[in-house]
Amino acid sequence: MNNKKKIYYNEAKRLYVEEQMNIEEIAARFNISVRVIKYWKEGQDWVVKRKKYLESRQTSHEDGYLYARKLLWKMSEDSKDGRKI
Fold first, then answer.
1. Do 85 and 79 touch, CB atoms closer than 8 A?
2. Nearest C-alpha neighbor of 69 from the set 80, 61, 81, 59
3. Global pTM?
4. Nearest C-alpha neighbor of 13 from the set 40, 52, 48, 32
């Protein structure tokens, strides 16, 4: 593994996968050629990792929304029935 990859690879992957940065932005941030970032991206399936990350975030948001709706409904029912909330 070369020095640039040791130093920048994990952060570059995180920026692509989690922060949705494009390869040009990442290359500019680390002063590395776009070609190198493309090579890392294609060699390690960053596109698939980004897709899975986004899907997991969507699922988490949906779960949170459903929980909040259920909680509010329960509080509303307790209030109507005169129970302490």
1. yes
2. 61
3. 0.63
4. 40
